[in-house]
Design brief:
Elements: H1 3-9, E1 13-18, H2 27-38, E2 44-47, H3 58-68, E3 74-79, H4 85-97, E4 102-106, H5 124-135, E5 140-145, H6 155-167, E6 172-175, H7 181-193, E7 200-204, H8 210-219, H9 226-235, H10 239-259, E8 264-268, H11 273-283
Parallel strand pairs: 1-2, 1-8, 2-3, 3-4, 4-5, 5-6, 6-7, 7-8
Helix pairs in contact: 2-11, 9-10, 10-11
Bound molecules: flavin-adenine dinucleotide (FAD).
């Protein structure tokens, strides 16, 4: 089923993100994670692409597994930075062969450790246009947005680029992690004024590990509210306590977003299904 149709038929969706196997996480572990996540009956599970370089090939395979064995709709992420059209063509064919109907179309990040060969795409918008040009309405396409702005651009320009991206033919938007809901509310107001009316999905990352969050803050432009800072200060050195505090924080964040009429919650599971499961339990009453 196309994600566009899911958003048309439901007033609230919940979904998860997983990443493919890498040097640290094996395929079996990813499959076990999917088996637990699918019991939560999410509206879809998305699979990241390209992080870690050689994991690209596995995205389609895992997206297929989610649909065929877990019985859950799937979204395959696809990045275009440094890619030639032929590579994108191959992935699109592969997606079609595997009956995957949904793509999260992204630019991708510039690698920090090597020069990138020039590709055929500069921005996510170019990829979105290309998919529509090659495949018409075959895929439902989503894209990324940044409630605190994308770190490479100023906020106003980023809004302008987001509008261009949505106008290229996007059915839904998933946000980068944000830890302070106020940024989401004011961003949503701005999008309304710009008449960006596609469903806005909140990307929620449970902060269950102090080291991990430091890295994420470095990579993104995400502010840490005082309340979370205090939790990190108090529980950051104790893995078990931090996990519990992080689950509580993410659950409260979601419950508040639901009260403010959010259309979709997308949990960045980091392939830790038990954390997503706990959050789902906490928010059950509010859904
Ligand atoms: P774009 O929308 O192309 O924007 C990138 C930058 O270019 C922005 O600063 C924008 O303002 C600017 N820009 C856009 N158009 C123009 C223009 N015409 N002229 C000048 N500047 C312009 N990365 C992965 O590698 N794999 C993944 O699976 C993955 N999944 C993600 C999922 C989500 C929900 C999110 C939020 C991010 C994900 N990322 C992933 C990270 C993403 O690739 C990076 O955040 C990347 O830096 C930007 O991607 P984008 O698609 O938002 O780019």
């Amino acid at each position: 089923m196309k994600i566009a149709d899911i958003y048309k038929s439901k007033s609230l969706t919940t979904s998860f993100e997983v990443f493919p196997p890498n040097e640290k996480v094996g395929l079996e572990e990813v499959y076990n994670c999917l088996d637990v996540l699918s019991l939560e009956k999410p509206d879809y599970i998305s699979v990241t692409y390209g992080a870690g370089g050689n994991t690209k090939g596995r995205t389609v395979e895992i997206a297929n597994r989610i649909k065929s064995q877990n019985g859950v709709e799937s979204v395959a992420h696809l990045t275009c930075i440094g890619a030639k059209k032929e590579e994108i063509d191959r992935v699109l064919e592969d997606l079609e062969r595997n009956n995957i109907e949904n793509i999260l179309a992204l630019r991708g990040d510039y690698p920090v450790d090597r020069e990138l060969e020039p590709g055929d795409f500069n921005y996510a918008k170019d990829l979105i246009n290309y998919i529509h040009e090659k495949k018409g309405d075959k895929f439902s396409i989503g894209a990324a947005y940044y409630v605190e702005g994308h770190r490479e651009t100023n906020d106003l320009l980023d809004l302008f680029h987001l509008k261009e991206k949505v106008d290229a033919g996007v059915d839904f938007l998933i946000s980068q992690i944000f830890l302070d809901n106020e940024f989401f509310y004011s961003f949503r107001d701005k999008l309304e004024k710009l008449q960006i009316n596609v469903p806005l999905v909140a990307g929620i990352m449970p902060v269950t590990n102090a080291k991990q969050i430091k890295r994420i803050i470095e990579l993104s432009k995400c502010s840490v509210p005082h309340k979370l800072d205090k939790l990190l200060e108090k529980y950051g050195d104790n893995l078990e306590s931090m996990k519990k505090a992080g689950i509580m924080y993410a659950s409260e964040q979601i419950i508040e977003l639901l009260a403010y009429g959010i259309k979709g919650i997308h949990i960045y599971t980091m392939n830790k299904p038990e954390i997503a499961k706990e959050i789902m339990k906490n928010i059950e009453f509010a859904r």
